[in-house]
Amino acid sequence: MLSTLSGRFLILTIVFVMLAEVLIFVPSVARFREDYLLDRLERAQIASLALEADNMLSTELEAELLDTAGVFNVVLLREEMRELALSSPMPQKTIAASFDLRDPGGLTLIHDAMMRLFTRENQVVRVIGAPVRDAGLLIEVTLETAPLRMAMIDYGLRVLALSAAISIFTAVLLFAAVRVLMVRPIKGVIGYMQRYAAAPEDARGIIRPHAKLTELREAEEALMKLQTELTHALKQKQRLAQLGAAVGKISHDLRNILTSAQLFTDRIEASADPLVRRLAPKLVNSITRAVSLCESTLAFGRAEEPAPTLGMVALADVVDDVIDSERLAIEPETVAWVRDVPPLLSVRADPEQLYRILQNLVRNARQAIAASGRSGEITVSAYEDDDNWWIKVADTGPGLPPKAREHLFTPFQGGTRKGGSGLGLAIAMELLQGHGGSLALGSTGPKGTTFVLCLPKGDGTI
């Protein structure tokens, strides 16, 4: 019970209502004491009027009048004269205290009531008040405190019992309200979460906000958004897994086809045609790289991209191979190629992976210029400092669209052109990270785009 929200709310409601009733109890008891004493003054005044009607009252009748009034004696002040109207023997000769009820303050009444409630000793006190209907200047009586205290205790117990009943009834009503308005909707949200966790791919498990409470509805809307995004992400992961399996199968068959093609390159190299003899080595290199790529794709499907085999590579030779390969894919006059790489600059990298990195970036630049429908320029430059080698691939294309900038290195989301898969930059980033390097977007805009590659000179040891 105490571990549930509704149970704790029930207990807290009872405690708070009882606390409120206690705050009401103190002034209520003080008011009861004041009314009790005023009633004794009024009874005493009535008894004194009976004496005025017949001055020859017997001692027994006088005692009966005082007993009915609940006092020991009555003193009236009329026309500046004090008059002992009625009197009887007091059990104590000493008067413990005097209380003036003609104009008492609220705090004074509360203080006197609490003192009387917690004082067990039976005392005789004097009470002064104003006579009703202006029958004199004041009336004064003496009385015992024991009956007053007992009456106050009885009244207090009845007030506390009523307070307890009210608090329990209120708590039950609030408990039922909380169960209906809060606990039941929360359990509904929990049910949606459990059903969704059991089958996240089932869209029927996504919550439909229907709560009337603003805060709970906001929670339902946030949960719906989270579940929707997660479902889409899971579906994308499944599609990627299926695509990976398909790519693995295609790569396997393509590797066999390319391996067969390698067997024919020897005959091509023996051709007497000078142009064929010049292009044959590039064809052999392209087929070799394609076979290597297929094997790497199959390896990636089984685990991860193979670790790079690092060595010192002449960067200018790799850049020339990339440019020559991409130049064959377009009309010569469409793109102007600029290579600004020092001839003797060597970098520590895996040559095949470095070729793939640069080829992806240069191909993206070429495709961006081709998609713009106008001629452009692609520049590959490099330099070094004390800690790193820096390579820049710049183009004069139309720049990257805003969506591509948000998911630039995310597969299938960071495509830089319409119809692109976004794999090129993702592959380049992954390969560079294997070298301990990084790939960043230097700038982009209507005048072109620049990517910056960083390869560290250190070997990663401390």
UniProtKB/TrEMBL annotation:
Residues 249-459 form the Histidine kinase domain. InterPro entries: HATPase_C_sf, HATPase_dom, His_kinase_dom, HisK_dim/P_dom, HisK_dim/P_sf, Sig_transdc_His_kin-like_C. It catalyses: ATP + protein L-histidine = ADP + protein N-phospho-L-histidine. The keyword Cell cycle does not apply. GO terms for molecular function: ATP binding; phosphorelay sensor kinase activity. This is histidine kinase. Gene3D superfamilies: 1.10.287.130, Histidine kinase-like ATPase, C-terminal domain. Residues 216-243 form a coiled coil. The chain crosses the membrane at residues 6-30, 159-182. PROSITE patterns: HIS_KIN. It comes from the Bacteria. The keyword Transmembrane helix applies. SUPFAM superfamilies: ATPase domain of HSP90 chaperone/DNA topoisomerase II/histidine kinase, Homodimeric domain of signal transducing histidine kinase. Keywords: ATP-binding, Coiled coil, Kinase, Membrane, Nucleotide-binding, Phosphoprotein, Transferase, Transmembrane, Transmembrane helix, Two-component regulatory system. Its EC number is 2.7.13.3. PANTHER family: PEROXIDE STRESS-ACTIVATED HISTIDINE KINASE MAK3 (PTHR43065:SF10), SENSOR HISTIDINE KINASE (PTHR43065). CDD domains: HATPase.
